[in-house]
Amino acid sequence: MTEPTFNYENKKDNILIKTGNAISTYVKDNMGILIGLIVLCIVISIINPDFLSSNNLLNVLRQTSTNMYLAIAMTMVIILGGIDLSVGSIIAVTGVVTTMLIALAGLPVFVAVLAGLLVGMLFGAFNGYVVATTIIPPFIVTLATMNIARGVAYVISDGKPVRVMSDSFNYIGSGYIGGVFPTPVLYMIIIIVLAYLIMNKTKLGRYMYAVGGNSEAAKFSGIDIKKIKLFAYTFSGLMAGIAGIVLSSRMFSGQPTSGDMAELDAIAAVVLGGTSMTGGSGRIGGTVIGALIIGVLSNGLNLMGVSSFWQYVVKGVVILVAVYADVIKKKRDGVSMGV
Which residues cross the membrane (predicted)? Predict the structure, then answer.
């Protein structure tokens, strides 16, 4: 009796073929924004050659990382047909709570960080519960939470930054792995992979697309819409909590003004990445490119000495153009935009 043989070379070739197909599909699906990212990089590098330096490119990734956390979660929320305007304020309250627990309460960094993440998740869960169980539009719910969270951050900190002089805490957002790779970028990679697996390899991800595409049909098919929405908004709160802790670590303090207008960058990254504002369609991979475009744009404008005030104008125009492009695409594809 001959023993069965296993051809490792064939398995290796199959893996390479599948990987190649996945990459080519990704490039094809995101060709437009990829070209936009490349052109943007070329233009900025011509204006300021320092843009392509290794230090600056790592700096771009580090600056992009916090927006990437928010944008990844925002993608899920928008795919469901919702919106989360509270993430910037959750960044502030999470950072303030964490730093106060370290600096004033004397708690270990690990415990304070867990508490900060819990605060972010609680605000997110509140959003998800209200959106899922009432008829109040997500825009209004998260707008209210935005004000509540920002107010809490100001009240508990008395409107003042909370300084933290802890090497272990500061390492969270300012450290380097191997002296080269920024820690926030490592978190970003892990979050991207996790979100990709959720949206593409699990029932939860498929249910999100189903609910966003047609919530009534999803309900009749047995999908628990409330749980899906609760997860998406809680995850958004968690990502905002991570962003808040990373930012406060980088600034060596928790500041009640932190995260101001952060939701603008997150939404811009999502719509640039091709996620429809009407729900039902979108990809994590597209959002990744969208967040990189926002990061490169911000870095390039800084290198060119453009005022931060004008940067808000530019980002606003980018969002308008991206949403308009989405509307045109849907009309071309024959998809109803509704009233």
Answer: 31-48, 69-94, 100-123, 135-156, 176-198, 230-252, 309-327
- Which stretches of the chain are assigned E, i.e. beta strand? 162-163, 176-177, 181-182, 253-254
Residue 35 lies in a domain: no
pTM: 0.89
Residue count (the chain):
339
Which domain covers residue 258, as residue numbers? 53-321
Residues in Cβ contact with 126 at an 8 Å cutoff, skipping those fewer than 6 apart? 145
DSSP 251: T
CATH number at residue 256: 1.10.3470
Tens of pLDDT along 183-223?
999 999 999 999 999 999 999 999 999 999 999 999 999 99
d(CA 10, CA 17): 10
Cα–Cα separations (whole angstroms), residue 219 to 19, 226, 228: 35, 10, 11
Q: Spell out the residues 6+ positions from residue 189 whose beta carbon is closer than 8 angstroms to its own.
A: none
List the structure tokens of 286.
């597209």
Q: What is the SS3 assignment for 115?
A: helix
Enclosing H/E stretch for 36: helix 31-47
**8-state DSSP, 304:** T
Would residue 77 count as lying in a domain? yes
CA atoms within 13 A on the CB side of 247: 34
